[in-house]
Amino acid sequence: MDPSKQETNQKKASKPMAKKETQEFQFVVYNTMTQQKEVFKPKIPGKVRMYVCGVTAYDFSHLGHARAAVSFDVLYRYLEHLGYEVTYVRNFTDVDDKIIRRANETGEDPISLSDRYCKEYNIDMSDLQCLSPTHEPRVSDHMEQIKDMITQIINKDFGYVVDGDVFFAVDKFPNYGKLSGQKLENNRAGERVAVDSRKRNPSDFALWKAAKPGEPSWDSPWGPGRPGWHIECSAMSAHYLSFKFDIHGGGLDLIFPHHENEIAQSCAACEESDVSYWMHNGHVTNNNEKMSKSLGNFFTIRQITERYHPLALRYFLINAHYRSPLNYSVVQLEGASDAVFYIYQTLKDCQDALLQLQEEMPNDGKPARISPDAKECISKLRNEFQVKMSDDLSTSLILTGAFLEALKLVNNLLTMLKKKQQKQQRLLVIKSLKEIENEVTKVLDVLGLQPPWSYNEVLLQLKEKALTRAGLVEDDVIRLINERAEVRRNKDFLKSDQMRAHLQAKGIALMDVGTETIWRPCVPVQQDSEIVPSEGQKVPPKPESA
Q: Which residue numbers delimit the tRNA synthetases class I catalytic domain (predicted)?
Protein backbone atom coordinates (compact mmCIF):
# COMPACT_ATOMS: atom_id res chain seq x y z
CA MET A 1 0.00 0.00 0.00
CA ASP A 2 0.98 3.65 -0.42
CA PRO A 3 3.17 4.66 2.61
CA SER A 4 1.12 7.83 3.04
CA LYS A 5 -2.01 5.68 3.35
CA GLN A 6 -0.22 3.49 5.90
CA GLU A 7 0.61 6.56 7.96
CA THR A 8 -2.99 7.75 7.75
CA ASN A 9 -4.20 4.30 8.73
CA GLN A 10 -1.84 4.16 11.71
CA LYS A 11 -2.98 7.57 12.92
CA LYS A 12 -6.64 6.64 12.63
CA ALA A 13 -6.06 3.21 14.14
CA SER A 14 -4.36 4.77 17.17
CA LYS A 15 -7.42 6.79 18.13
CA PRO A 16 -9.19 5.40 21.20
CA MET A 17 -12.66 4.08 20.52
CA ALA A 18 -15.58 5.69 22.28
CA LYS A 19 -17.37 3.77 25.00
CA LYS A 20 -20.56 2.15 23.89
CA GLU A 21 -23.85 1.60 25.65
CA THR A 22 -24.09 -0.74 28.65
CA GLN A 23 -23.42 -4.37 27.82
CA GLU A 24 -26.66 -6.31 27.45
CA PHE A 25 -25.18 -9.77 26.95
CA GLN A 26 -22.58 -11.61 29.00
CA PHE A 27 -19.34 -11.91 27.07
CA VAL A 28 -18.14 -15.51 27.05
CA VAL A 29 -14.76 -16.75 25.81
CA TYR A 30 -13.30 -20.20 25.33
CA ASN A 31 -10.59 -20.85 27.91
CA THR A 32 -7.98 -23.36 26.74
CA MET A 33 -7.04 -24.03 30.37
CA THR A 34 -10.50 -25.30 31.31
CA GLN A 35 -11.46 -26.35 27.76
CA GLN A 36 -14.84 -24.66 28.02
CA LYS A 37 -16.55 -21.33 27.47
CA GLU A 38 -16.57 -19.03 30.49
CA VAL A 39 -18.15 -15.68 31.29
CA PHE A 40 -15.46 -13.02 30.99
CA LYS A 41 -14.78 -11.20 34.27
CA PRO A 42 -11.62 -9.07 34.48
CA LYS A 43 -9.58 -9.11 37.68
CA ILE A 44 -10.02 -5.34 38.02
CA PRO A 45 -13.55 -4.12 37.14
CA GLY A 46 -13.54 -1.94 34.02
CA LYS A 47 -9.95 -2.79 33.09
CA VAL A 48 -8.49 -5.58 30.98
CA ARG A 49 -4.85 -6.62 30.78
CA MET A 50 -3.94 -8.77 27.78
CA TYR A 51 -0.68 -10.28 26.52
CA VAL A 52 -0.39 -11.86 23.08
CA CYS A 53 2.72 -13.62 21.78
CA GLY A 54 4.06 -11.82 18.72
CA VAL A 55 6.40 -12.83 15.92
CA THR A 56 10.01 -13.91 15.76
CA ALA A 57 11.18 -11.20 13.40
CA TYR A 58 13.61 -12.62 10.83
CA ASP A 59 11.54 -12.53 7.61
CA PHE A 60 8.33 -11.12 6.19
CA SER A 61 5.34 -12.35 8.16
CA HIS A 62 3.02 -14.94 6.69
CA LEU A 63 -0.73 -15.55 6.65
CA GLY A 64 -0.62 -17.46 9.95
CA HIS A 65 0.85 -14.39 11.65
CA ALA A 66 -1.88 -12.25 10.06
CA ARG A 67 -4.58 -14.52 11.46
CA ALA A 68 -3.25 -14.31 15.01
CA ALA A 69 -2.89 -10.52 14.79
CA VAL A 70 -6.36 -9.96 13.33
CA SER A 71 -8.03 -12.40 15.76
CA PHE A 72 -6.68 -10.59 18.81
CA ASP A 73 -7.21 -7.19 17.22
CA VAL A 74 -10.92 -8.04 16.97
CA LEU A 75 -10.85 -9.03 20.66
CA TYR A 76 -9.06 -5.77 21.53
CA ARG A 77 -11.60 -3.70 19.59
CA TYR A 78 -14.57 -5.56 21.07
CA LEU A 79 -13.34 -5.13 24.64
CA GLU A 80 -12.99 -1.39 24.03
CA HIS A 81 -16.43 -1.38 22.41
CA LEU A 82 -17.78 -2.85 25.65
CA GLY A 83 -16.25 0.07 27.52
CA TYR A 84 -13.20 -1.60 29.05
CA GLU A 85 -9.87 0.21 29.43
CA VAL A 86 -7.51 -2.27 27.79
CA THR A 87 -3.76 -2.61 28.22
CA TYR A 88 -2.66 -4.73 25.28
CA VAL A 89 0.91 -6.05 25.11
CA ARG A 90 2.26 -7.88 22.06
CA ASN A 91 5.97 -8.69 22.00
CA PHE A 92 8.63 -9.00 19.32
CA THR A 93 11.20 -11.77 19.62
CA ASP A 94 14.37 -10.16 18.31
CA VAL A 95 16.89 -12.55 19.92
CA ASP A 96 16.55 -16.13 18.67
CA ASP A 97 18.36 -18.98 16.90
CA LYS A 98 16.43 -18.36 13.65
CA ILE A 99 17.37 -14.69 13.62
CA ILE A 100 21.03 -15.51 14.23
CA ARG A 101 21.07 -18.09 11.43
CA ARG A 102 19.45 -15.66 8.97
CA ALA A 103 21.85 -12.87 9.98
CA ASN A 104 24.83 -15.18 9.43
CA GLU A 105 23.46 -16.02 5.95
CA THR A 106 23.06 -12.35 5.00
CA GLY A 107 26.06 -10.97 6.85
CA GLU A 108 23.90 -8.60 8.92
CA ASP A 109 23.91 -7.76 12.59
CA PRO A 110 21.13 -9.96 14.13
CA ILE A 111 19.51 -7.12 16.07
CA SER A 112 19.54 -4.83 13.03
CA LEU A 113 18.06 -7.56 10.82
CA SER A 114 15.30 -8.21 13.34
CA ASP A 115 14.58 -4.49 13.71
CA ARG A 116 14.06 -4.25 9.96
CA TYR A 117 11.51 -7.06 9.98
CA CYS A 118 9.76 -5.65 13.06
CA LYS A 119 9.16 -2.49 11.02
CA GLU A 120 7.94 -4.52 8.03
CA TYR A 121 5.55 -6.39 10.32
CA ASN A 122 4.09 -3.12 11.59
CA ILE A 123 3.53 -1.97 8.00
CA ASP A 124 1.57 -5.18 7.39
CA MET A 125 -0.41 -4.63 10.59
CA SER A 126 -1.26 -1.08 9.53
CA ASP A 127 -2.44 -2.35 6.14
CA LEU A 128 -4.64 -4.94 7.88
CA GLN A 129 -6.15 -2.24 10.10
CA CYS A 130 -4.80 -3.78 13.31
CA LEU A 131 -4.74 -1.23 16.12
CA SER A 132 -1.34 -0.58 17.67
CA PRO A 133 -0.97 -2.42 21.01
CA THR A 134 -0.38 -0.37 24.15
CA HIS A 135 3.15 -1.80 24.38
CA GLU A 136 5.32 -3.70 21.86
CA PRO A 137 8.33 -4.84 23.93
CA ARG A 138 11.40 -6.46 22.40
CA VAL A 139 13.60 -9.06 24.05
CA SER A 140 16.79 -7.05 23.51
CA ASP A 141 15.34 -4.15 25.53
CA HIS A 142 14.33 -6.30 28.52
CA MET A 143 17.44 -8.26 29.46
CA GLU A 144 17.41 -6.99 33.05
CA GLN A 145 13.84 -8.16 33.64
CA ILE A 146 14.67 -11.54 32.07
CA LYS A 147 17.81 -12.02 34.19
CA ASP A 148 15.93 -10.98 37.35
CA MET A 149 13.23 -13.59 36.71
CA ILE A 150 15.79 -16.32 36.03
CA THR A 151 17.50 -15.41 39.31
CA GLN A 152 14.18 -15.75 41.16
CA ILE A 153 13.61 -19.16 39.57
CA ILE A 154 17.09 -20.38 40.56
CA ASN A 155 16.74 -19.03 44.12
CA LYS A 156 13.48 -20.98 44.50
CA ASP A 157 15.25 -24.16 43.34
CA PHE A 158 13.33 -24.48 40.06
CA GLY A 159 16.40 -23.73 37.93
CA TYR A 160 19.99 -24.96 37.82
CA VAL A 161 23.21 -23.81 36.15
CA VAL A 162 25.43 -26.02 34.00
CA ASP A 163 28.53 -24.55 32.28
CA GLY A 164 26.95 -21.11 31.84
CA ASP A 165 23.58 -22.51 30.68
CA VAL A 166 20.53 -22.30 32.95
CA PHE A 167 17.80 -24.93 32.76
CA PHE A 168 14.32 -25.14 34.26
CA ALA A 169 13.78 -28.34 36.28
CA VAL A 170 10.35 -29.56 35.19
CA ASP A 171 10.31 -32.28 37.86
CA LYS A 172 10.16 -29.52 40.46
CA PHE A 173 6.87 -28.20 39.04
CA PRO A 174 4.12 -30.79 39.70
CA ASN A 175 1.51 -28.91 37.61
CA TYR A 176 3.59 -29.07 34.43
CA GLY A 177 1.26 -30.01 31.58
CA LYS A 178 -1.94 -28.55 33.04
CA LEU A 179 -2.59 -26.30 30.01
CA SER A 180 -1.78 -28.76 27.24
CA GLY A 181 -2.60 -32.03 28.96
CA GLN A 182 0.87 -33.27 28.06
CA LYS A 183 2.48 -35.71 30.49
CA LEU A 184 6.19 -35.61 31.19
CA GLU A 185 6.65 -39.21 30.10
CA ASN A 186 5.23 -38.20 26.68
CA ASN A 187 7.54 -35.19 26.42
CA ARG A 188 10.96 -36.67 25.94
CA ALA A 189 13.74 -34.92 24.08
CA GLY A 190 15.92 -36.91 21.73
CA GLU A 191 13.36 -37.93 19.13
CA ARG A 192 14.31 -35.12 16.72
CA VAL A 193 17.38 -33.56 18.36
CA ALA A 194 20.19 -35.01 20.45
CA VAL A 195 19.53 -35.16 24.19
CA ASP A 196 21.70 -32.77 26.22
CA SER A 197 23.23 -35.17 28.76
CA ARG A 198 23.84 -32.27 31.16
CA LYS A 199 20.10 -31.96 31.83
CA ARG A 200 18.68 -33.60 34.94
CA ASN A 201 15.57 -34.50 32.93
CA PRO A 202 15.48 -34.62 29.12
CA SER A 203 12.35 -32.40 29.27
CA ASP A 204 14.13 -29.57 31.10
CA PHE A 205 14.28 -26.45 28.96
CA ALA A 206 16.73 -23.56 28.62
CA LEU A 207 16.22 -20.31 30.54
CA TRP A 208 19.64 -18.92 29.56
CA LYS A 209 22.06 -20.06 26.84
CA ALA A 210 25.80 -19.63 27.27
CA ALA A 211 27.45 -17.45 24.61
CA LYS A 212 28.76 -19.04 21.43
CA PRO A 213 31.19 -17.53 18.93
CA GLY A 214 29.48 -15.25 16.42
CA GLU A 215 26.30 -14.85 18.46
CA PRO A 216 25.04 -11.75 20.31
CA SER A 217 25.43 -12.05 24.06
CA TRP A 218 24.77 -10.15 27.28
CA ASP A 219 26.54 -10.33 30.64
CA SER A 220 24.78 -12.27 33.38
CA PRO A 221 25.49 -13.83 36.80
CA TRP A 222 26.02 -17.14 34.93
CA GLY A 223 28.37 -15.74 32.33
CA PRO A 224 27.75 -14.08 28.95
CA GLY A 225 24.86 -15.47 26.95
CA ARG A 226 21.27 -14.86 25.84
CA PRO A 227 17.79 -15.90 26.96
CA GLY A 228 16.00 -19.08 26.01
CA TRP A 229 12.82 -18.57 24.00
CA HIS A 230 10.17 -19.11 26.67
CA ILE A 231 11.46 -16.87 29.46
CA GLU A 232 11.02 -13.64 27.47
CA CYS A 233 7.19 -13.72 27.56
CA SER A 234 7.04 -14.56 31.27
CA ALA A 235 9.37 -11.66 32.08
CA MET A 236 7.77 -9.09 29.78
CA SER A 237 4.16 -9.94 30.68
CA ALA A 238 5.02 -9.63 34.37
CA HIS A 239 6.84 -6.33 33.76
CA TYR A 240 3.94 -4.66 31.91
CA LEU A 241 0.91 -6.41 33.43
CA SER A 242 2.14 -7.94 36.74
CA PHE A 243 2.05 -11.67 37.47
CA LYS A 244 -1.74 -11.57 37.53
CA PHE A 245 -3.58 -10.54 34.40
CA ASP A 246 -6.68 -11.40 32.40
CA ILE A 247 -5.89 -12.79 28.94
CA HIS A 248 -2.90 -14.54 27.42
CA GLY A 249 -3.23 -15.27 23.70
CA GLY A 250 -1.42 -16.75 20.76
CA GLY A 251 -1.60 -19.37 18.05
CA LEU A 252 -2.72 -22.93 18.74
CA ASP A 253 0.82 -24.19 18.14
CA LEU A 254 2.06 -22.18 21.14
CA ILE A 255 0.04 -24.15 23.71
CA PHE A 256 2.89 -26.64 23.97
CA PRO A 257 5.65 -26.17 24.74
CA HIS A 258 5.77 -22.34 24.80
CA HIS A 259 2.75 -21.47 26.93
CA GLU A 260 3.16 -24.57 29.10
CA ASN A 261 6.73 -23.47 29.86
CA GLU A 262 5.60 -19.89 30.47
CA ILE A 263 3.19 -21.08 33.16
CA ALA A 264 5.91 -23.13 34.83
CA GLN A 265 8.41 -20.23 34.80
CA SER A 266 5.96 -17.59 35.99
CA CYS A 267 4.59 -19.74 38.81
CA ALA A 268 8.10 -20.71 39.86
CA ALA A 269 9.13 -17.03 40.04
CA CYS A 270 5.90 -15.99 41.78
CA GLU A 271 3.54 -18.48 43.43
CA GLU A 272 0.61 -16.10 42.96
CA SER A 273 1.09 -15.91 39.19
CA ASP A 274 -2.27 -16.32 37.49
CA VAL A 275 -3.76 -15.78 34.01
CA SER A 276 -7.55 -15.93 33.98
CA TYR A 277 -8.12 -16.87 30.33
CA TRP A 278 -5.85 -18.59 27.83
CA MET A 279 -7.07 -17.96 24.27
CA HIS A 280 -5.68 -19.50 21.08
CA ASN A 281 -6.45 -18.97 17.41
CA GLY A 282 -6.57 -21.86 14.93
CA HIS A 283 -4.01 -22.66 12.26
CA VAL A 284 -4.07 -21.43 8.70
CA THR A 285 -3.67 -24.43 6.42
CA ASN A 286 -2.60 -24.87 2.82
CA ASN A 287 -4.15 -28.00 1.31
CA ASN A 288 -5.13 -28.94 4.88
CA GLU A 289 -1.51 -28.83 6.11
CA LYS A 290 -0.46 -26.21 8.68
CA MET A 291 1.04 -23.19 6.94
CA SER A 292 4.51 -22.46 8.33
CA LYS A 293 7.92 -21.21 7.29
CA SER A 294 9.55 -24.47 8.35
CA LEU A 295 7.35 -26.44 5.92
CA GLY A 296 7.87 -23.92 3.12
CA ASN A 297 4.16 -23.91 2.24
CA PHE A 298 3.40 -20.38 3.34
CA PHE A 299 2.42 -17.12 1.67
CA THR A 300 3.62 -13.86 3.16
CA ILE A 301 1.09 -11.14 3.97
CA ARG A 302 2.90 -8.95 1.46
CA GLN A 303 2.57 -11.54 -1.33
CA ILE A 304 -1.20 -11.69 -0.80
CA THR A 305 -1.75 -7.94 -0.46
CA GLU A 306 0.07 -7.36 -3.73
CA ARG A 307 -2.93 -9.02 -5.40
CA TYR A 308 -5.77 -8.59 -2.91
CA HIS A 309 -6.75 -5.53 -0.91
CA PRO A 310 -5.72 -5.80 2.77
CA LEU A 311 -9.35 -5.24 3.81
CA ALA A 312 -10.37 -8.21 1.63
CA LEU A 313 -7.70 -10.27 3.41
CA ARG A 314 -8.99 -9.13 6.80
CA TYR A 315 -12.55 -10.06 5.76
CA PHE A 316 -11.26 -13.49 4.68
CA LEU A 317 -9.55 -13.99 8.06
CA ILE A 318 -12.57 -13.07 10.20
CA ASN A 319 -15.03 -14.93 7.99
CA ALA A 320 -14.17 -18.08 9.96
CA HIS A 321 -14.33 -18.47 13.74
CA TYR A 322 -10.96 -17.57 15.22
CA ARG A 323 -10.54 -21.02 16.83
CA SER A 324 -11.38 -22.96 13.67
CA PRO A 325 -8.76 -24.05 11.13
CA LEU A 326 -8.76 -21.77 8.09
CA ASN A 327 -7.77 -23.25 4.75
CA TYR A 328 -6.04 -20.87 2.33
CA SER A 329 -8.15 -20.62 -0.81
CA VAL A 330 -7.97 -18.27 -3.79
CA VAL A 331 -11.71 -18.82 -4.31
CA GLN A 332 -12.44 -17.62 -0.77
CA LEU A 333 -10.12 -14.63 -1.19
CA GLU A 334 -11.95 -13.74 -4.41
CA GLY A 335 -15.24 -14.05 -2.55
CA ALA A 336 -13.95 -11.85 0.26
CA SER A 337 -12.82 -9.22 -2.23
CA ASP A 338 -16.23 -9.28 -3.91
CA ALA A 339 -17.98 -9.01 -0.54
CA VAL A 340 -16.06 -5.93 0.63
CA PHE A 341 -16.56 -4.26 -2.76
CA TYR A 342 -20.32 -4.72 -2.36
CA ILE A 343 -20.23 -3.35 1.19
CA TYR A 344 -18.25 -0.23 0.29
CA GLN A 345 -20.14 0.39 -2.95
CA THR A 346 -23.44 0.28 -1.04
CA LEU A 347 -22.12 2.66 1.62
CA LYS A 348 -20.66 5.00 -1.00
CA ASP A 349 -23.99 5.14 -2.83
CA CYS A 350 -25.73 5.83 0.49
CA GLN A 351 -23.22 8.50 1.48
CA ASP A 352 -23.44 10.20 -1.94
CA ALA A 353 -27.24 10.25 -1.79
CA LEU A 354 -27.30 11.67 1.75
CA LEU A 355 -24.78 14.34 0.79
CA GLN A 356 -26.97 15.47 -2.10
CA LEU A 357 -30.05 15.50 0.14
CA GLN A 358 -28.41 17.23 3.10
CA GLU A 359 -30.56 20.33 2.74
CA GLU A 360 -33.71 18.24 3.04
CA MET A 361 -32.71 16.85 6.43
CA PRO A 362 -33.97 19.00 9.32
CA ASN A 363 -31.43 19.75 12.03
CA ASP A 364 -33.92 20.24 14.87
CA GLY A 365 -32.22 17.94 17.36
CA LYS A 366 -35.28 15.68 17.58
CA PRO A 367 -34.89 11.88 17.41
CA ALA A 368 -35.06 10.68 13.83
CA ARG A 369 -38.39 9.17 12.80
CA ILE A 370 -37.65 6.17 10.60
CA SER A 371 -39.70 3.59 8.75
CA PRO A 372 -40.89 0.41 10.52
CA ASP A 373 -38.73 -1.68 8.16
CA ALA A 374 -35.66 0.38 9.05
CA LYS A 375 -36.44 0.18 12.76
CA GLU A 376 -36.78 -3.62 12.57
CA CYS A 377 -33.60 -3.88 10.46
CA ILE A 378 -31.53 -1.84 12.94
CA SER A 379 -32.90 -3.75 15.94
CA LYS A 380 -32.16 -7.09 14.30
CA LEU A 381 -28.63 -6.05 13.27
CA ARG A 382 -27.82 -4.68 16.72
CA ASN A 383 -29.19 -7.76 18.47
CA GLU A 384 -27.44 -10.21 16.14
CA PHE A 385 -24.14 -8.36 16.50
CA GLN A 386 -24.35 -8.44 20.30
CA VAL A 387 -25.41 -12.08 20.47
CA LYS A 388 -22.73 -13.36 18.08
CA MET A 389 -19.83 -11.23 19.32
CA SER A 390 -20.58 -11.98 22.96
CA ASP A 391 -20.45 -15.69 22.14
CA ASP A 392 -16.67 -16.07 21.90
CA LEU A 393 -16.32 -13.60 19.02
CA SER A 394 -18.39 -15.44 16.40
CA THR A 395 -17.40 -13.01 13.65
CA SER A 396 -18.13 -15.50 10.88
CA LEU A 397 -21.84 -15.32 11.70
CA ILE A 398 -22.04 -11.50 11.77
CA LEU A 399 -21.19 -10.68 8.15
CA THR A 400 -24.23 -12.61 6.89
CA GLY A 401 -27.85 -12.53 8.03
CA ALA A 402 -28.95 -9.18 9.44
CA PHE A 403 -25.85 -7.39 8.17
CA LEU A 404 -26.54 -8.31 4.55
CA GLU A 405 -30.24 -7.57 5.04
CA ALA A 406 -29.28 -4.07 6.18
CA LEU A 407 -27.23 -3.49 3.02
CA LYS A 408 -30.07 -4.81 0.89
CA LEU A 409 -32.51 -2.42 2.57
CA VAL A 410 -30.10 0.49 1.94
CA ASN A 411 -30.14 -0.35 -1.77
CA ASN A 412 -33.95 -0.64 -1.77
CA LEU A 413 -34.29 2.75 -0.07
CA LEU A 414 -31.87 4.31 -2.55
CA THR A 415 -34.06 3.00 -5.35
CA MET A 416 -37.12 4.52 -3.66
CA LEU A 417 -35.40 7.93 -3.57
CA LYS A 418 -35.22 7.90 -7.35
CA LYS A 419 -39.02 7.76 -7.53
CA LYS A 420 -41.37 10.67 -6.99
CA GLN A 421 -42.59 10.81 -3.37
CA GLN A 422 -44.43 13.07 -1.00
CA LYS A 423 -42.17 15.23 1.17
CA GLN A 424 -42.87 13.38 4.46
CA GLN A 425 -42.35 9.97 2.87
CA ARG A 426 -39.11 11.15 1.28
CA LEU A 427 -37.90 12.53 4.62
CA LEU A 428 -38.69 9.18 6.25
CA VAL A 429 -36.56 7.37 3.65
CA ILE A 430 -33.65 9.80 4.09
CA LYS A 431 -33.66 9.47 7.89
CA SER A 432 -33.97 5.68 7.62
CA LEU A 433 -30.92 5.55 5.35
CA LYS A 434 -28.88 7.65 7.76
CA GLU A 435 -29.74 5.49 10.78
CA ILE A 436 -29.04 2.20 8.99
CA GLU A 437 -25.73 3.56 7.69
CA ASN A 438 -24.74 4.53 11.25
CA GLU A 439 -25.50 1.03 12.56
CA VAL A 440 -23.65 -0.71 9.73
CA THR A 441 -20.52 1.42 10.22
CA LYS A 442 -20.56 0.64 13.97
CA VAL A 443 -20.35 -3.06 13.14
CA LEU A 444 -17.58 -2.48 10.59
CA ASP A 445 -15.66 -0.37 13.09
CA VAL A 446 -15.57 -3.11 15.74
CA LEU A 447 -14.58 -5.69 13.13
CA GLY A 448 -11.81 -3.42 11.83
CA LEU A 449 -13.41 -3.22 8.38
CA GLN A 450 -14.23 0.49 8.36
CA PRO A 451 -11.70 1.90 5.87
CA PRO A 452 -9.44 4.84 6.81
CA TRP A 453 -9.96 6.27 3.34
CA SER A 454 -13.11 7.49 1.60
CA TYR A 455 -15.32 4.77 0.16
CA ASN A 456 -14.47 6.05 -3.30
CA GLU A 457 -10.74 5.61 -2.63
CA VAL A 458 -11.08 2.08 -1.30
CA LEU A 459 -13.28 1.10 -4.26
CA LEU A 460 -10.63 2.41 -6.66
CA GLN A 461 -7.99 0.43 -4.76
CA LEU A 462 -10.10 -2.74 -5.00
CA LYS A 463 -10.48 -2.18 -8.76
CA GLU A 464 -6.71 -1.74 -9.12
CA LYS A 465 -6.13 -5.07 -7.35
CA ALA A 466 -8.68 -6.76 -9.63
CA LEU A 467 -6.87 -5.40 -12.70
CA THR A 468 -3.56 -6.69 -11.30
CA ARG A 469 -5.02 -10.18 -10.88
CA ALA A 470 -6.48 -10.03 -14.39
CA GLY A 471 -3.17 -8.91 -15.89
CA LEU A 472 -4.83 -5.80 -17.32
CA VAL A 473 -4.79 -2.04 -16.96
CA GLU A 474 -7.94 0.06 -17.02
CA ASP A 475 -7.23 1.26 -20.59
CA ASP A 476 -7.49 -2.39 -21.71
CA VAL A 477 -10.93 -2.68 -20.12
CA ILE A 478 -12.13 0.63 -21.63
CA ARG A 479 -10.90 -0.47 -25.05
CA LEU A 480 -12.80 -3.77 -24.76
CA ILE A 481 -15.92 -1.95 -23.57
CA ASN A 482 -15.76 0.30 -26.65
CA GLU A 483 -15.17 -2.66 -28.97
CA ARG A 484 -18.10 -4.50 -27.39
CA ALA A 485 -20.32 -1.42 -27.80
CA GLU A 486 -19.57 -1.49 -31.54
CA VAL A 487 -20.37 -5.20 -31.65
CA ARG A 488 -23.69 -4.57 -29.90
CA ARG A 489 -24.55 -1.80 -32.35
CA ASN A 490 -24.05 -4.38 -35.10
CA LYS A 491 -26.43 -6.68 -33.16
CA ASP A 492 -23.81 -9.43 -32.86
CA PHE A 493 -25.00 -10.41 -29.39
CA LEU A 494 -23.23 -13.78 -29.41
CA LYS A 495 -19.85 -12.09 -29.79
CA SER A 496 -20.90 -9.46 -27.24
CA ASP A 497 -21.62 -12.21 -24.72
CA GLN A 498 -18.31 -13.89 -25.48
CA MET A 499 -16.45 -10.63 -24.85
CA ARG A 500 -18.29 -10.17 -21.55
CA ALA A 501 -17.56 -13.79 -20.55
CA HIS A 502 -13.87 -13.37 -21.46
CA LEU A 503 -13.56 -10.49 -18.97
CA GLN A 504 -15.71 -12.21 -16.36
CA ALA A 505 -13.33 -15.18 -16.43
CA LYS A 506 -10.59 -12.70 -15.44
CA GLY A 507 -12.65 -11.23 -12.59
CA ILE A 508 -13.97 -8.16 -14.45
CA ALA A 509 -17.77 -7.79 -14.67
CA LEU A 510 -19.37 -5.53 -17.29
CA MET A 511 -22.72 -3.95 -16.47
CA ASP A 512 -24.89 -2.28 -19.07
CA VAL A 513 -26.62 0.69 -17.45
CA GLY A 514 -28.86 2.35 -20.01
CA THR A 515 -26.64 3.29 -22.94
CA GLU A 516 -23.49 3.16 -20.80
CA THR A 517 -21.33 0.17 -19.81
CA ILE A 518 -19.42 0.26 -16.53
CA TRP A 519 -17.19 -2.35 -14.89
CA ARG A 520 -16.52 -3.65 -11.42
CA PRO A 521 -14.50 -6.52 -9.95
CA CYS A 522 -16.19 -9.90 -9.59
CA VAL A 523 -15.37 -13.48 -8.68
CA PRO A 524 -13.85 -14.99 -11.85
CA VAL A 525 -16.38 -17.18 -13.66
CA GLN A 526 -15.40 -20.04 -15.94
CA GLN A 527 -16.29 -19.46 -19.57
CA ASP A 528 -18.59 -21.86 -21.41
CA SER A 529 -15.85 -22.41 -23.97
CA GLU A 530 -13.74 -23.97 -21.24
CA ILE A 531 -16.41 -26.59 -20.48
CA VAL A 532 -15.73 -29.75 -22.42
CA PRO A 533 -19.06 -31.23 -23.68
CA SER A 534 -19.76 -34.93 -24.06
CA GLU A 535 -19.22 -36.41 -27.53
CA GLY A 536 -21.84 -35.06 -29.91
CA GLN A 537 -23.21 -32.61 -27.34
CA LYS A 538 -23.22 -28.89 -28.01
CA VAL A 539 -23.02 -26.24 -25.33
CA PRO A 540 -25.49 -23.47 -26.20
CA PRO A 541 -24.20 -19.91 -25.91
CA LYS A 542 -25.32 -17.86 -22.90
CA PRO A 543 -28.03 -15.35 -23.79
CA GLU A 544 -27.17 -11.66 -23.78
CA SER A 545 -27.80 -10.23 -20.30
CA ALA A 546 -29.68 -7.00 -19.84
A: 41-336
